[in-house]
Every structure is written in C-alpha cells, then in structure tokens.
Amino acid sequence: MSAATEGTTKDRLREAAIATVRERGIAGVSARTVAANAGANQASIYYHFGSLDALLSDAAQAATAGRVAAHRDRLAAVASVSELVEVARSLHAEERELGNVTVLAQMLAGAQHDRVLAEGTTAALQLWIDEVEATLQRLLAGSLLEELVDLPALARGVSAAFVGVELLDGAEDDGELPTLDALTQLAGLVQVVLDLGPVAGAAIRRHVKRSTRDR
Amino acid sequence: MSAATEGTTKDRLREAAIATVRERGIAGVSARTVAANAGANQASIYYHFGSLDALLSDAAQAATAGRVAAHRDRLAAVASVSELVEVARSLHAEERELGNVTVLAQMLAGAQHDRVLAEGTTAALQLWIDEVEATLQRLLAGSLLEELVDLPALARGVSAAFVGVELLDGAEDDGELPTLDALTQLAGLVQVVLDLGPVAGAAIRRHVKRSTRDR
DNA sequence: GTCTATAGCTGGATAGAC
DNA sequence: GTCTATCCAGCTATAGAC
Lengths: 215, 215
Prior knowledge:
Two copies of one chain form a homodimer.
Chain A: H1 9-24, H2 31-38, H3 43-49, H4 52-77, H5 81-98, H6 100-111, H7 115-140, H8 144-148, H9 151-170, H10 179-194, H11 198-213
The structure holds a DNA duplex.
C-alpha cells in the first residue's frame, strides 16, 4: 500500500481512495482500508465526507479532472483521426499503469447499485466524454461523419468502449492483448473513408440515403 | 429477492449467484446473500463449490452458455452488417432486462483482483466473443474488412464495447440513452462502405496502403 | 447432502476525549 | 480536526449433528 504522508488529511483521503480502488478493486474498498492507505484513522472519513460513497465520488471527480487536464494539450494537437488513434493507444498504455480508466470502471460497477457513487462516477466520466467529444467535433467538422453520426453519442460510445477494453484486458494474465488494436484499425479505416474525396463521398451519401429508406 | 425453489441445491445456488450479482452487484455478493437467494444455507456453497469465487465462476459460464445459445439462431440468420446492428440493438434491450452482460461486467470488475473469478469470467465472455467472431467472419468473408482488420481482435473489441455500454448506461437514471445508437450508426456506415463496389474498394485499398506506409 | 453452531474477523457508524 | 474506543451487524470457513 502506498501510505501517503503529505497534504491535508482530506486530500490524503481522496488520494488514498483512488489508490485503494486501483489496488484492491471496488469490492476491496472499505473505510478502514482507505484510511490505512491515507495514514489516517477510519473515523476521519465520516468527519470529512459523511460516508465512504461520498468520498469515492469526490475523489473520482478530482482525480479524473487531473488526468483529463494532463491529456488536454495532446488531444488539442491532434489533427487527424489516425493521429487520434495514436494518442488513444498511448493513453491506453498509460492507463494500464496509472489506472484512471480502470478506477472509473471499478466505480462504474459499484455505481450500478449505489446512487451517490453513480452521480460522482458519471460526473467524472463526463469529463472524459466531453474531451473526446470536443476532439471529435474539431476533427470531423464539415466531414461526412459529422452529417451521418450523432457526435455526442459517438463520444459516449467511444468512451464506453475504452472502459470495456480496460476491463477485458485487465482480467487476462497475458501481457498485451490486441483488443484496442482492432478498434484502432477500424478508426484507421474511417480516416481513409474521410480522405476519399468528394466523388466517393457523394456515392456514400447516396448509399446511406438508400439504406435509411429501407428501414 | 427471487428465492428459487426448484432443482437441486447446486443448481439453485448457481442461479442464485447470478441473480444476486444482478440485484446487488459484485460488491453486494456474499455467501450469505447468495444462499438466502437460493433458499439454502450458507455452508452449502463451500460443500458444493469450495468457495464463493468458484461458485461465481461456475455460474457465469453456465448462465452465459444458456444466453449465447438463446441468441445463436438469430445471429445465424443475420445476412448483413445492418441486420447485425438490429440484432445487437435488441440484444442490448434484452440485456437491460435479463442482464447477462451486466452480470459479466460486474464479474469482470471483481475479476481484476481475483484469479479464480478472472478465469471463470473470461471463459464466459469468450463464449460471447466466439459467437461474435463467427458471425463477423461469415458476414465479412471476402470483403474489404476481412483483409484490413484483425477479426478475432475486432470481435473482442466489439464485445468490450458492449460491456462498457452496459456499464455506462446502467449508471444513469435516465431512461434510454443513445450510446449504442452512435456505435450502430458507425456500423451502418461500415455496411455502406462494404456495399460500395469494386471501384471504390480499390480506391480505399490504395489509401490504406498509402497511410500504412506513412507510419 | 443438508442443516445448525460457532470461532474469529472485518465492516460501518457514532460517541466522546483531547 | 484528529484520535481512541466501542457497538453490533455481517462476513468466511470449518466442525459436527442428523
């Protein structure tokens, strides 16, 4: 365990909450384990946050805000879908180490049956989703995809896929699994279609109209 | 709670294990809650399965095999990516009710820090992944996508996305969220690209070669 | 195979000293 | 604000009656 010793108790509790979820999973989190990890006593959680749920909610949002900010510059520099895929790949690699997405996945699992945790976790995830949406919006402005796909929902779907991939890969002993690779190959294909030019674009638009009419 | 009363104790425990995960999440599962749900006593779990982990592992595989079999005929009848999307949509709706994917998501979260659970859960998920892969293989045989994408990994990625979507949507109070819609819109676009015909296909192949060379 | 009983532990939450 | 002490509910795992 990491046993933080700097900052105020309230801050150390936040950090310890995240660390404990990462190290032991949502099922291994208790007021006692978190407090031990923070070098504080168990009662301090109830004093500062009222409940363990509330601490986790609070900590998730604070930690995620930090991680999102750390990636913002890199995302802002991305100029194409293929570059975005590269950023996604390295973000995935970092997350396997630092584990913010993994922590959010654990909390999402807990959030299915816990209102307080649900609110904090969805708020935290929304920080990622907003960032993804802003990037997609910028990259796809004026393109075929912007016309044909609901962007806010796509950002949500992409984020969901990331969460799922972290969970699946985290459950395997094997080293690197190619799960993300396949999705990045798909994204690469999307980039290629975007690059096709106006003639092919028009052909695709016609096809979409036709297949939409068939419904 | 559902309190099953038919079948052998061992079977009732398996069913109760799934029901308890669905109703209370992985963090709410204990030998006591499961046994109560099965109408049996807590010690029977250790007699029949040795541990709670082992029961969950066993139950996940049995339940998933049943759900996958229930969907096999429908998947086998699918003849296009757009039809597959329709099946995925109704599968998603059913899963929100019956909850096998949701249960697997909970178990995946637990599996991150539990070897026994990890083995059972990945084996169960593999049943879905294999089914998805077989369907994709059939639909994409001879197509552009078969050449350009790693199909086993794609099947894994698609399954991961499903898990992530169940988790995200399950954490919101709101009724229907459009998360899956965006991914199905993407899939529809893929169908359109597949339908484009040999000329556009050749153009895409050229583009892919070019962008691959650039790496 | 199924039950009760139990030992020994971990858990949430509060009270109250400092 | 931080600590100790405490209550009691819930937990795992085993022993042993039937």
